[in-house]
Structures are given as C-alpha cells and as structure tokens.
Write a structure and sequence with these properties.
alpha+beta; Ybab, Chain: A; three-stranded antiparallel sheet; 3 strands
Length: 112
C-alpha cells in the first residue's frame, strides 16, 4: 500500500492486523480448551443422561433401568434422542457464550 494514497492508514492497518492475529490465536486456544469440556444433559428427569464433549462427540449414555420396557421401546428412543439433542444444544450454547466473551459479541462467520 503506497503511503501517499491513504495518509495515516499504514500504522492503523498494521495495528489492526496484529490485533486480529492475536485474537485468532486466542480463539484457537479457547476452542481447543472448549473441545475438552464435557456437558451433561438428561431427559425424563434423569432417566437418560448423555455426556457430550466440545467436539460434539457423545462420550457416554446412561439409561435408568426403570425406563427399559420391551413393550415401549419408542419411549426409550425418544428419551435418548431428547438427551442427545439437549447435550448438543448445550455445547453450541457453551461455544457461542465463550467465544462471544473473546470477540466482544461480534458475530464472526465460520468461527465455530
């Protein structure tokens, strides 16, 4: 960029680029930390408990034997699905909240 075309922009642009690089490194570090976190969600008042990590991987599913009824498999399927979906939603919320703290609430497309 030629200095004569945009007076005063050279230093500001350089500082802005340094700040963006610093923020990018902070976001990468935070994202790695968040991927290690575990979220626990449940359905049916704890009848089905699902643990999900920040990578949106299911770590475990616990099912209380009281909801295991061979005559009503559909209810058990619904409880498992509800617990898993809640866990995934909670991970999304956690990521958005923590990244929002770092970015000052700016919505940066493709961030996570």
């Amino acid at each position: 960029m030629a200095k004569g075309r945009f007076p005063g922009m050279g230093g500001n642009l350089g500082n802005m680029m340094k700040q963006m690089q610093k923020m990018q490194k902070q976001m990468e570090k935070l994202q790695k930390e968040l991927e290690e976190r575990e979220i626990e969600a449940s359905a049916g008042v704890g009848a089905v408990v699902c643990k999900v990590n920040g990578k949106k991987e299911i770590i475990s599913i616990k099912i209380d034997e009281s909801v295991v009824d061979p005559e009503d498999i559909e209810m058990l399927e619904d409880l498992v699905m509800a617990a898993v979906n809640e866990g995934l939603r909670m991970v999304d919320d956690m990521m958005a909240k923590e990244m929002g703290k770092l970015t000052g609430g700016m919505n940066i497309p493709g961030l996570f």
